[in-house]
């Protein structure tokens, strides 16, 4: 029960932002940046909740195995830290998503002006 599962952390770092971007970019290009942000954020935070639930089930399974063997064991790092890792990853990914959205929105807005007025 010691240590975090780096495989799932790497999955959490790569898959949700890619899926969120795949959903958000087409909506942004339809001049709906807020809806694109909401859709991308929903995907990213939904994935984070899924990763947290997966981690919780894994911890419960490991704790039950320890109890079946007749002793108590406690995870290291504790459950809150493990859950917080996925939550902070998702929060940073949403911040990046919003930053990219601002850049795309600025480019689309400035595209309507002549170059000498930009």
Main beta-sheet strand count, sense and barrel state: none
Q: How many discrete structural domains?
A: 1
pLDDT under 50 segments (min length 5)? none
Distance between the termini: 58 Å
> What is the number of E strands?
0
Gross geometry: rod-shaped
Q: Kindly state the mean pLDDT as a whole number? A: 92
Radius of gyration: 20 Å
Query: How many individual helices?
Result: 3
Task: Give the structural class.
Answer: mainly alpha
Could you estimate the helical fraction of the residues in percent?
over 70%
Strand content: under 5%
SSE order, as H and E? HHH
What descriptors fit this protein?
118 residues, 3 helices
Task: Quickly describe the structure.
This protein has one domain. 78% of the residues lie in helices and 0% in strands.
Topology, element by element:
Blueprint: H1 6-29, H2 33-68, H3 79-110
Helix pairs in contact: 1-2, 1-3, 2-3
């Amino acid at each position: 029960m010691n240590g975090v599962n780096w495989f799932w952390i790497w999955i959490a770092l790569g898959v949700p932002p890619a899926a969120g971007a795949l959903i958000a970019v087409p909506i942004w290009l339809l001049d709906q940046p807020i809806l694109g942000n909401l859709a991308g954020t929903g995907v990213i935070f939904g994935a984070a909740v899924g990763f947290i639930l997966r981690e919780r089930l894994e911890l419960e399974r490991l704790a039950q195995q320890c109890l079946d063997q007749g002793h108590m064991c406690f995870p290291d790092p504790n459950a809150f830290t493990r859950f917080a890792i996925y939550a902070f990853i998702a929060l940073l990914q949403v911040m990046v998503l919003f930053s990219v959205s601002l850049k795309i929105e600025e480019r689309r807005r400035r595209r309507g002006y002549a170059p000498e007025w930009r």
